[in-house]
Design a protein that fits this description.
The complex is a heterodimer of chains A (about 650) and B (about 60). Chain A is an alpha/beta fold and about 650 residues long. Chain A is built from 16 helices and 15 strands. In chain A, helix 6 (about 180-205) packs antiparallel against helix 13. Chain B has about 60 residues and is mainly alpha-helical. Helix content of chain B is about 70%, strand content about 0%. Chain B has 4 helices and no strands. Chain B has helices at about 5-15, 20-35, 40-50, 55. Chain B is flat, with a radius of gyration of 12 Å. Classes of the chains: A alpha/beta (about 650), B mainly alpha (about 60). The interface between A and B is medium-sized, with 31 and 28 residues.
């Protein structure tokens, strides 16, 4: 299916605009060029509003504005009317049949009132027009471009490189199911199941036993559905966690050691503080020591000289012996004539010797007594002063050793800081690390949870089979129920076949999607031979495998990711059997330099197979891009805004 | 719009030995593929009756 034209009336800045998309020289490429704010994205919004009543690409400024154009409002006021009409018509063709999608909505401006929009599809097949409205019209759109996967038809180029981000994986799975119509099989399976339940109820009314078995079976089936839902939910959570971990690991490639570096950094900072405290204590100890030694050091020269002199005089017997004069006197004049020390009788010879000593002491000067008295203090001062150097050296050595440790610690800190500073966005990296860590924990819990749920699921399946057999046997016993039983058997067989087709389709679509996406990607990418294959796991998480064997979806360039998204979309359209158009707003905005030119060449190839409508800004639509597109484009339109009226028109 | 061709091919393959089933599912698939499904129960029951009713049994 391709669009042939779009007519927009009164929608945002479009008062009346018709865009035609003729097909010429087999290249279904159509270019729209407009400055930012002129309204190229609002053409995309007009399309999605018409088809889905949604404007997902609406800018913040436009969100606060009414959907109708101000010019339309002015016209309505001038004509004295009270209703403003917004209308978008999309004319399309599919295998020679024409289709018109039309949505219109009315507004009352004073007081403001928004009427419900009306949507219709007019399909003209073999010159016979058929009009679909309401749910039928919505269903018609859904069969061409399902609403839930509209992002695979209408792109915002700026989002192209985020196409495979984690939270999109469930959408991809959903897209494949919807776009390949596998969900139709699921629906048929469910409806057959409802018919079977209805038939069982019919049989149950005829035979109470059957009712019992039937109720039992219905209960089991309900429980099974609930468990299956839980299983699916856990699987999705597991896939999400795995994808986040994988994506973060890719993003953090080469930056894995940042948390370790940060940890070490913190430890070293602590160590540095401890060393500074130790060093400070050493310094205090040294200062205290020097303060204490100040007296001894200042007295040292005179104390040393005095001590030397005393020692010299002692050596030359120039100083009297330091004898207690009173003791001698007491001994000489003692009444008992005994020695006061050994208590033996004093001989005359001894008395005369004591007398001699006393005479000798009488001649010694007061100075010599003082000298002898201070000698021990002088010795202490001199010893202390002489020991100062070694004690000081010891304290200095302790201080220096701490300083060395501190220097080492600071050098290590500087190295780590340099390492950390190499990472461009530390906070983001840490955030990613923490996110991965959290998801690892969630993943472990969910895996345990899954094992339990799976066990319950298997158990309920077994019970369901048993209940099914009991019911079948009960039905067989009742003659009246034979015909119903045969219908149930028939519908059950139909269900099994539908289920098998569904499973085969999913497997085949997945396998083919892998192959076709890779084939498109190889054809489109300019770096040949770097990537070997594309894989889709059971949850449709896409992985691009590098020739060295690792997954690099998250780490390849924005241009490559955009190409990958385009390849996936083309494969999806092809494998699903759909051939709807692609509308890309700002297609090369995320690609620069030579990659931009290559990407443009790729798009020029794509338009040979399907309709491609692209909206550019003039900055984006550079000479090297326009020189590729202009010669082949079937239509090229420039849009401009009349700023007075705020109306956009074709130049 | 017709249902995905591959689904129809698989249907034929899976029911090659049971033509009644093939026709039954074919009608169901066509019904799901059509834009005139409406309230599905009635058209479904009509098809079931056609294949499993008295005329279907004969």
């Amino acid at each position: 299916m391709r669009f042939t034209s779009i007519e927009i009336e009164g929608f945002r800045q479009y008062h009346q605009l018709t865009l035609n998309f003729p097909l010429e020289h087999h290249r279904d490429m159509h270019i729209l060029v407009a400055d930012n704010g002129v309204g190229k994205t609002n053409i995309l919004n007009a399309i999605t509003w018409c088809l889905y009543e949604e404007e997902p690409h609406l800018g913040n400024k436009s969100k606060s504005l009414p959907r109708y154009s101000l010019k339309s409002k002015e016209e309505v006021e001038n004509k004295g009317l009270d209703k403003i009409t917004v209308s978008v018509k999309i004319y399309a063709e599919d295998n020679g049949n024409s289709i018109l999608f039309h949505r219109t909505q009315q507004y009352k401006h004073d007081p403001f009132f928004e009427f419900k929009s009306e949507f219709s599809v007019t399909a003209t097949i073999s010159e016979e027009a058929k009009i679909f409205a309401d749910d039928e019209a919505i269903a018609y759109v859904d069969r061409y471009m399902p609403k839930k996967v509209r992002q695979y038809f209408f792109f915002d180029g700026e989002q192209l490189d985020k196409y495979f981000i984690t939270d999109e994986s469930s959408k991809i799975k959903e897209a494949i199911r919807a776009i390949s119509q596998i969900d139709v099989l699921t629906r048929i399976y469910k409806r057959l199941g409802e018919l079977i339940t209805g038939k069982r109820n019919e049989a149950a009314k005829k035979a109470p036993d059957i009712k019992k078995y039937n109720d039992q079976l219905v209960d089991l089936q309900n429980t099974k559905e609930q468990i299956s839902y839980s299983l699916n939910e856990v699987d999705q959570q597991i896939t999400l966690s795995e994808a986040i971990i994988r994506e973060n690991t890719e993003k953090l490639s080469g930056q894995e050691n940042l948390p370790d570096l940060n940890k070490k950094n913190i430890e070293l900072h602590k160590k540095r503080i401890q060393l500074l405290e130790i060093q400070d204590k050493c310094k205090q100890k040294l200062f205290r020591f020097i303060r204490e030694m100040k007296v001894a050091l200042s007295l040292y020269p005179s104390a040393k000289a005095t001590l030397d002199m005393i020692n010299e005089k002692e050596a030359s017997h120039a100083l009297p012996p330091n004898i207690d004069k009173k003791l001698l006197e007491d001994m000489l004049h003692s009444e008992d004539g005994l020695c006061t020390i050994c208590h033996s009788p004093l001989k005359d010879e001894s008395k005369s010797h004591i007398q001699e000593l006393m005479e000798l002491l009488a001649v010694s000067s007061e100075t010599s007594h003082i000298l002898m008295g201070i000698k021990s203090e002088l010795v202490r001062i001199v010893d202390e002063a002489q020991a100062y150097q070694s004690a000081r050296n010891e304290l200095m050595a302790e201080y220096k050793a701490t300083q060395v440790q501190l220097d080492d610690c600071e050098a290590e800190l500087r190295t780590i800081d340099e390492e950390i500073n190499k990472f461009q966005d530390n906070e983001k990296i840490i955030e990613l690390h923490n996110e991965s860590e959290n998801h690892r924990k969630i993943l472990d819990k969910n895996k345990e949870k899954r094992a339990i749920i799976k066990h319950n699921y298997d158990d309920i399946c077994q019970k369901e089979e048993e209940a099914q057999n009991e019911l079948t046997n009960a039905l067989a016993k009742e003659k009246e129920c034979e015909r119903i039983k045969s219908t149930i058997d028939f519908l059950s067989r139909a269900q099994i076949i539908v289920s098998k087709i569904e499973k085969d389709m999913m497997d085949e679509v997945r396998a083919k999607m892998e192959v076709r996406t890779m084939e498109y990607f190889e054809k489109l990418i300019w770096k040949k031979g770097v990537y070997t294959k594309i894989t889709l796991d059971s949850n449709y998480q896409l992985e691009l495998i590098h020739r060295d064997g690792y997954s690099c979806t998250g780490s390849c360039s924005a241009a490559e990711r955009s190409l990958l998204a385009l390849s996936f979309t083309l494969a999806l359209h092809e494998v699903s059997g759909f051939n709807a158009l692609l509308f890309i707003d700002t297609p090369v905005s995320r690609v620069t330099g030579q990659n931009r030119v290559n990407f443009a060449k790729v798009l020029a190839e794509v338009c040979k197979q399907k309709q491609l409508i692209m909206a550019f800004t003039p900055d984006e639509y550079t000479d090297n891009i326009s020189s590729i597109f202009e010669p082949i484009a079937s239509s090229s339109v420039k849009l401009k805004m009349n700023t007075d009226e705020e109306i956009t028109y074709i130049v | 719009m017709a249902l995905n061709k591959k689904i129809m091919e698989k249907l034929v393959q899976e029911t090659k030995d049971d033509l009644a089933m093939q026709n039954f599912l074919n009608e169901i698939f066509q019904l799901e593929g059509s834009n005139n499904l409406g309230w599905y129960t009635k058209p479904y029951e009509a098809i079931v009756k056609k294949y499993c009713g008295k005329e279907g049994q004969e």
